C-alpha cells in the first residue's frame, strides 16, 4: 500500500483535497508575501524543490498529507500546478474506510477552529474552503520566535494551537497579534506546556 520509490507528478492545485479543516490565514498571507518575492526570478526553482506529499485516495484523488498553508497560498496566488509525491496508494479503499485509515495513521486532523473534533464529512473537499484558525497562525509564529522546537509529531502545531486556545481569547489574538505572541511565549516556557511536542522550557532538578 505504501510507495517506496518517489512518484513525482504535477497535479492541479484546485484538485488537491485537504485532510484538515482549518489553516491559519495569517500564516497563509505570510507565505503569499514570500512567494511574491520569489516568483519573478526563483519561482520555478522553488516549486521544483517543494514537492507535496499526498495519499492517493478513492477515485484516484490526491489528499494532502502536509503543507496545507503553502498549497493554499499558491492557490490564492493563481499557481495552477504543483509537484506531488504519492507516499501511499489507498485508491482501492472505500471512502468511509479511507478516512478511518487516515485517522489511525494520524494522516488527518478533523478538528474545527474551536478545537472540536468533527465528522470526517466536514473536512472540505477543496483547498479553497479551509476555515481560519487564528491560534494555528499564533502557534506557527510562536515556533519561529523560539517558543518551541520543530517536532516530527504529526499536527504538532495544532496541539500548540489548542493549548493556546484554552488560555487566550480569540478576539485578543485577532486584535493585537504581537501582544498575543508575547503572552504565548510566556505560556510556552511554563511547566503546564511541558507535555507538548518541542517544549523547551526549564526542567526542575
Features:
single chain; 205 residues; alpha/beta; Conserved hypothetical protein from pyrococcus furiosus pfu- 392566-001, ParB domain; Helicase, Ruva Protein, domain 3; 2 domains; 4-stranded mixed beta sheet; 7 helices
Poorly predicted ranges: none
Q: Specify the CATH architecture of the largest domain.
A: Alpha-Beta Complex
Distance between the termini: 47 Å
CATH topological fold name of the largest domain: Conserved hypothetical protein from pyrococcus furiosus pfu- 392566-001, ParB domain
Order of helices and strands: EEHEEHEHEHHHH
What can you see in these coordinates?
- This protein is α/β, with parallel strands linked by helices.
- It is built from seven helices and six strands.
- The chain has two domains: 8-132, Alpha-Beta Complex (Conserved hypothetical protein from pyrococcus furiosus pfu- 392566-001, ParB domain), CATH 3.90.1530.10; 134-191, Ubiquitin-associated (UBA) domain (Helicase, Ruva Protein, domain 3, Orthogonal Bundle).
- The protein has a four-stranded mixed sheet, with no helix packed on it. Strands 2-6 form a two-stranded parallel sheet.
